[in-house]
Amino acid sequence: MSDSGRMDESTLVAVVRRAQGGDAEAFGEIYRQYCGRVLGLCRRLLRSPEAAEDAANETFLRAQRAIGSFNGTVSFATWLLSIASHHCLDQLRHRTVEQRLMEPEWSDRQEPEARELTPLGQMMAGEQALAVRDAVEALPDQTRLALVLCYACGFTYEQIAEVMHLNRNHVATLIFRGKRALRKKLARHGREQQR
Amino acid sequence: MNCFPELTYAVYADGELPAEEAAQVEEHLAACSRCRRLADSLQVETRALQQALQADEAAEPSASRQNPPQSA
Description:
The complex is a heterodimer. Chain A is mainly alpha-helical. Chain A folds into two domains: 9-99, Rna Polymerase Sigma Factor, Chain: A (Orthogonal Bundle), CATH 1.10.1740.10; 108-194, Winged helix-like DNA-binding domain superfamily/Winged helix DNA-binding domain (Arc Repressor Mutant, subunit A, Orthogonal Bundle), CATH 1.10.10. Chain A contains ten helices and no strands. In chain A, helix 9 (157-164) crosses helix 10 (168-194). By secondary structure, chain B is an all-alpha fold. Chain B starts with 5 loop residues before the first helix and ends in an 18-residue tail after the last helix. Classes of the chains: A mainly alpha, B mainly alpha. Chain A binds chain B through residues 4-6, 27-28, 30-32, 35-37, 39-41, 44, 57, 60-61, 64, 111-112, 114-115, 117-118, 120-122, 124-125, 128-129, 132-133, 136, 147-148, 150-154, 156-157, 172-173, 175-176, 179, 182, and chain B through 6-7, 10-11, 14, 16, 34, 37-38, 40-42, 44-61, 65-69, 71.
């Protein structure tokens, strides 16, 4: 175990092997190690603490059933967060049309000027992390999912494409447009803060 | 060499451009200060987004989350 409380790679491999052999205590260690990240991801994707708790629980139930199929071709965190992402995506798909109609509209018609970007990046890098997270949460489902998987979970475009059943170029465009929408929201937030 | 579209620089900032295309972008960036500013800004954004969104990803489990859920 590292000082930060995270398992090092060799410990994790050993714990996963034990869990694959049916060791419930080993799966408990995995749960304690990853439940914060899984819950955080579910909260961001579902925007409801209750739904996120349920989704996180379902993720670990599914992971326990499927852990025998984990073969190390991706990291364990990626494998586990993929299960959570798939489940949250299913939940979002099942939400009613009315809920989807209430999603905020956003437009990507205007190309941003390059000069807008640096102050915005600085704002994101400053003490505005909460504003950034709020702005991400207000994005439409698909866009939010792509951004969270990319920047919170560290998934590659290829991995995001697999989770979301999209092609890689579509993922690139979703992320690009999502960031553009974020810039607009955060620029507005910045102007309001200055008043 | 012509400037690349902004989307290309955004994908480059995420480290997702294929090596050959990334090399072409880097060659252009060495010669074009406007695109270099844009690419730098996009990289700042990428890092800032990672920091903002990863900040509470590693939340420690609460006392009530010491054991995995049990199937019904």
